[in-house]
Structure formats: C-alpha cells, structure tokens
C-alpha cells in the first residue's frame, strides 16, 4: 500500500457498532435522529466500493454511505475517498435540477468521507427487479426526465457561460473517470488480467474486440467521454444505480438515481447509454431464460427513456441562458450528438460487463450454458450498436434490431 493510501486511511471507518456515536457527533444528524432512539443499524453495502448503513429509529430512518480508501471488493486496489465529496456535490446539484429523482442529502462529512441521505428502503434496486421479470412502468420515463433536467440544468444552456465554467472546474473527478476510462473503454479491448472469458465465448470476444470498426467506435467514444464537458452527468447510471417503487393505491410511483460518485462534466449521452447498455444485459438474460416477452418489454425501455429525455430537454430549451446563437437548429444538433454518444456508450457499457471487471447479476447468475448464449448475444448487440447504431433512425428501430441480435438473427 502506498504512503498516500496510508495517509488517506487515517480516518475512522464506521461499523454497525459505531454508527450511533457517529450520529450523535454530527449536529445535522442528531437533529434528525435521536441517537438514543436508534433501534437498529444494518450494514447493507453490497456494491463494489463503499460501506452503506441503514439507521433505523423510532423517529425515522436515514442512510450513511462511507467511502473506503480502497475498492470494497478488492482491498488491494487503492482509490480516493474524495469521491464522497463529488457524490455530495452532485447529489445537491442533481436534487436541485431534478427534484424527487435522487435521494435527499442530509449531511456531508468531508473528513470522514460520509454522506447521510434519505432512506429509500421501500424501493428496490431496478436491476434485481428487471432480473425477476418485474415491470416498473414509468421508471424509464422518470430516468429520461432525470437525465434531461440534469443535462439542461447543469449545462451551459441552463447555467450560462460563467457559472458553467465554475461548475466544470469544481467537478473535475479524475480518479473516478480513470476507472471508467480503463474498465469501460480500454481493458475489454486489450489483454488484461481483469478480463475473464469463458472458453466457449473466446471467439465471440475476439470477433467483437478485434473488429477494427468496433475499436474505432470505442476509441471515439472514449475521446468523447474524456473531452466533452457538456453537463454534470451521473457517470455510472446502470440499473444497479436506480431505485424503483411501483405505484400503489394512494402512493405514487417513485424512481431515484443514486450512487453519483462518478459524477463529472461529461457527455450527456453517456448517461442515456448506460441505461441502454443495461437494458441490453437484462434483455439478454430474459432471452436466455426463454422469456422473450420480458426481453421485448425491456428493450422497449430504450425508446421510452429516449422519448422522455428528448421531450423534457426540448421543453426546457426556451429557458436557455443565451438564445442569441443557440437557436433551434442547435437543439437538434445537440440532441443528435447525444444520440450518437448514447449508442456508443450503450455498447461499451454492455460489453464491459461480459468481458472485464465488475460483472452483473443479469448474466452471472445464469447457468454456464445460458451464460455463454447471453454473452454471445450481448457482444453481437454491442457490435451492431457500434457499427450501425448511429445511422439507424431512432431507438425504436435500433432496439428492435438489438432484439434480433440477441436472438442470433442478425
Ligand atoms: C472498481 S469497481 C468500479 C465499477 O463499479 C462501479 O459500479 C462502476 O460501474 C465501476 O466501473
Ligand atoms: Mg456504484
């Protein structure tokens, strides 16, 4: 472990036992929850990188999320706990641009790298729900609205020139961006120890990653990710970063994007593409399990999210800060750029989950023979997106073709 990591480690790592004392020490929290009334603390962290505790009390609940100075699932991999500060900053910015679509933030502790947020235990992680064949109607629409509001509200269109420059400068998140540059846009395309490939998929991976058209499209997508400072994007908007709660009599549906530690000023299409890529993974699972109806429904979410994004962004457009030369032609140009970025990002986000580090339950919980089929389908779909996607008119037609690719018909 390096000296830098050792230095960064010099803060208290929370445990179930120490959480009540922590709450008592934080003025913003002890006003929300009486430490003496805490009935239970649950360690629910099951992601790749952080500790997460649900704190229950007779007067209400909250969640604490603490960044470790290493990757939780690989403690030999050091990583800056400063990511917690980016999470707090982005949660505030996104909460203000898209109220009700991210968890409320109650407190941010820069010294111990902890954020306290709203408890959403009555929601569930969308990936798990999709994998069980459940339909949370409207969630894709909500996420399209979320991406649009954040995209507009944090962009030069929403903020104006001066505030946009200040926001870009305050949101440079190099270490987390480097993880994406490596894991999403590089390692699956080179020989790397992170890549784990079933022998039966070796040719599929070679065909995908060896295709010069794929390599050029991925290189261009990586360049866009590294250079297009359009808006304060979520940066990791896969279906495991979304909480959903279905509508019930007397209770509206709720959809929240969470885990915004990868937020930075990047291409808006990367967030849309993250959703699309994860719809491909969920559909590949459904198809492998013989549930074609669910696969078709999931792939239809791509168009639903896009239509909601487009409509919401266009509705916000009249409020842009500087309409002098940002006319309606620029709106169309911007949206078509987002579409192209989303297509490539969707492919990259799907392919990385079946080649490189950080796999997903959609695929990994399938028996090996079905996993081989699903992975083959995902790679065919990713190749289609990269090679023909931007030229295919709209996500409706495109994701019909993705469905064919998953079924081995393209
Ligand atoms: C070090 S693991 C990193 C991955 O986990 C996150 O969820 C992101 O997807 C990232 O690529
Ligand atoms: Mg995450």
TrEMBL record:
Residues 41-283 form the Aminoglycoside phosphotransferase domain. Keywords: ATP-binding, Kinase, Nucleotide-binding, Transferase. Pfam families: APH (PF01636). It comes from the Bacteria. GO terms for biological process: methionine biosynthetic process. Coiled coil: none annotated. Its EC number is 2.7.1.100. One of its GO terms (molecular function) is ATP binding. The keyword Iron-sulfur does not apply. Belongs to the methylthioribose kinase family. Homodimer. NCBIfam families: MTRK. This is S-methyl-5-thioribose kinase. The gene is mtnK.
């Amino acid at each position: 472990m390096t000296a830098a990591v050792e230095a960064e480690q010099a803060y208290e790592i929370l445990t179930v036992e120490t959480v009540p004392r922590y709450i008592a020490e934080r003025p913003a929290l002890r006003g929300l929850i009486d430490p003496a009334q805490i009935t239970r603390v649950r360690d629910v962290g099951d992601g790749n990188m952080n500790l997460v505790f649900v704190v229950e009390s007779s007067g209400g609940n909250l969640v604490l999320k603490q960044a470790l100075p290493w990757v939780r699932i690989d403690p030999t991999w050091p990583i800056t706990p400063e990511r917690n500060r980016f999470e707090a900053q982005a949660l505030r910015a996104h909460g203000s641009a898209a109220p009700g679509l991210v968890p409320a933030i109650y407190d941010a502790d820069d010294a111990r790298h902890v954020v306290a947020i709203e408890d959403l235990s009555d929601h569930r992680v969308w990936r798990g729900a999709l994998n069980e064949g459940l339909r949370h109607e409207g969630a894709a629409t909500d996420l399209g609205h979320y991406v649009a509001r954040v995209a507009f509200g944090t962009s030069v269109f929403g903020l104006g020139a001066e505030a946009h420059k200040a926001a870009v400068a305050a949101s440079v998140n190099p270490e987390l961006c480097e993880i994406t540059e490596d894991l999403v846009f590089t390692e699956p395309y080179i020989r790397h120890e992170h890549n784990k490939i079933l022998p039966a998929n070796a040719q599929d991976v070679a065909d995908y990653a060896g295709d010069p058209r794929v390599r050029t499209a991925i290189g261009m997508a990586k360049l866009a990710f590294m250079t297009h400072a359009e808006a304060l994007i979520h940066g990791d908007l896969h279906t495991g970063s979304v909480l959903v709660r279905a509508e019930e009599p007397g209770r509206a549906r709720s959809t929240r994007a969470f885990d915004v530690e990868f937020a930075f000023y990047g291409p808006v299409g990367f967030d849309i593409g993250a959703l699309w890529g994860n719809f491909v993974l969920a559909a590949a699972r459904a198809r492998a399990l013989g549930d074609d109806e669910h696969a078709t429904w999931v792939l239809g979410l791509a168009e639903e999210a896009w239509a909601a994004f487009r409509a919401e962004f266009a509705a916000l457009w009249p409020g842009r800060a500087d309409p002098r030369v940002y006319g309606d032609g620029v709106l169309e140009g911007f949206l078509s750029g987002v579409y192209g970025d989303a297509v490539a990002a969707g492919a990259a986000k799907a392919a990385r989950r079946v080649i490189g580090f950080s796999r997903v339950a959609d695929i990994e919980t399938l028996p090996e023979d079905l996993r081989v089929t699903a992975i083959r389908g995902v790679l065919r779909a990713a190749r289609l997106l990269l090679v023909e996607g931007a030229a295919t008119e709209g996500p409706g037609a495109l994701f019909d073709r993705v469905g064919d690719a998953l079924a081995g018909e393209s």
